[in-house]
Design brief:
- It is a single chain.
- The protein is of the alpha/beta class and 337 residues long.
- It is 49% helix and 15% strand.
- It contains 14 helices and twelve strands.
- The strands form two sheets. Strands 1-2-3-5-8-9-10-12 form an eight-stranded parallel β-barrel, surrounded by eight helices. A two-stranded antiparallel ribbon has the order 6-7.
- Helix 6 crosses helix 7.
- The radius of gyration is 20 Å and the shape is globular.
- The model has no long low-confidence stretch (mean pLDDT 97).
């Protein structure tokens, strides 16, 4: 089992954080798109580390276009000497249209076209061949020599793998068709992975005649030095579950553990700003179905492996509260022991 960490920090702290993650033995360092760009920190991580893989989990694909993503992915792959993973996700319609002012339509089909376009752009750069991608959503037919990077920049390790995030069966099937890896959502319990994610990935891979992509899951964990910290951690997880559960598309995830009826209630409260009321609706049974109590790293690691070991290839830790990094390092070492 590979164990990764996600780093959320200011650019001024990224180099030290990446070095610390590599020295702690993590296999991968991920960033994600929230209040800062996800790619710039990875440039610093690539510069100051030598072994750890680096990737975005996720960068918002539909906020960009295939050529822009191809360029960024190529440069980070070249600079990190083959350690970069281009992790993409869709976000949801209101964010794409109202936050990014970009088009939204048929996200699974659009993502399929986007990843296909990125790969065709890379192939054109590697081979010097003509670029002629004419998809349903993206068209790329112009690539003069001035704008082609030197293929020698990636010849020793190739272009980066593309990992795709998803929850619903259709997007997950697209990942099976065109992606190298799948980024599972932190809300997803093992029941959902087993009953929906894995079968959908297999169906997509079979349709395309390619191997089933690897799976990364960032599991919610509860850690702390004492009862007071564990209580804070549990409430942070409870609040995050309420937030995630308010998204209508995630109702099937709640269904998988018997809480599907909670989704519409959370969604309605989110529309009226009832955030504190939402959190109160998430009981301890649901928290324990989604999150793993890892106050004891050995017991926590055993439970993580019991839940996710048969299902995923890479594991990370989702902590929607201020967790001591040393506790997560202990947990990662116990998982890998």
């Amino acid at each position: 089992m590979l164990v990764d960490t996600t780093i959320v920090t200011h650019l001024s702290n990224m180099a030290d954080a990446a070095v610390a993650a590599e020295e702690a033995g993590y296999d991968g360092v991920w960033t994600f798109e929230s209040s800062h760009d996800p790619f710039l920190p990875l440039m610093l991580a690539a510069e100051h580390t030598t072994k750890v893989e680096i990737g975005t989990s996720i960068a918002v694909a539909f906020a960009r276009n295939p050529l822009l993503l191809a360029s960024i992915g190529w440069d980070l792959q070249s600079y990190s000497r083959g350690r970069f993973i281009l992790g993409l996700g869709t976000q949801i319609k209101p964010h794409i249209e109202r936050r990014y002012s970009m088009p939204w339509s048929r996200p699974a089909a659009r993502m399929h076209d986007m990843i296909s376009a990125i790969r065709e752009i890379w192939q054109s750069w590697e081979t010097g061949g003509r670029l002629d991608h004419r998809g349903e959503f993206y068209t790329h037919t112009l690539m003069p020599p001035l704008f082609r990077p030197n293929p020698d920049e990636v010849q020793d390790f190739g272009t980066p793998p593309i990992w795709l995030a998803g929850v619903g069966p259709r997007m997950t099937e697209v990942a099976g068709e065109v992606a190298d890896g799948f980024l599972s959502h932190p809300l997803c319990p093992p029941e959902f992975l087993r009953e929906t994610t894995v079968p959908s990935l297999m169906a997509g891979a079979a349709k395309a005649g390619r191997p089933v992509p690897a799976i990364h899951h960032s599991a919610m964990v509860i850690v702390g030095h004492d009862d007071a910290e564990l209580k804070v951690a549990r409430e942070g997880v409870r609040k995050q579950i309420a937030f995630y559960g308010s998204t209508p598309a995630y109702r099937p995830v709640l269904d998988s553990v018997g809480y599907g009826d909670l989704g519409p209630r959370l969604h309605e409260l989110s529309r009226t700003g009832g955030w504190s009321e939402m959190t109160k609706l998430v009981g301890d049974q649901l928290v324990d179905a989604i999150a793993v109590n890892a106050a004891d790293p050995v017991a926590g690691a055993a439970e993580l492996l019991r839940r996710y070991g048969p299902l995923v290839d890479r594991l990370g830790f989702n902590t929607p509260y201020q967790a001591d990094p040393a506790l997560l390092v202990n947990l990662s070492r116990a998982v890998r022991a």
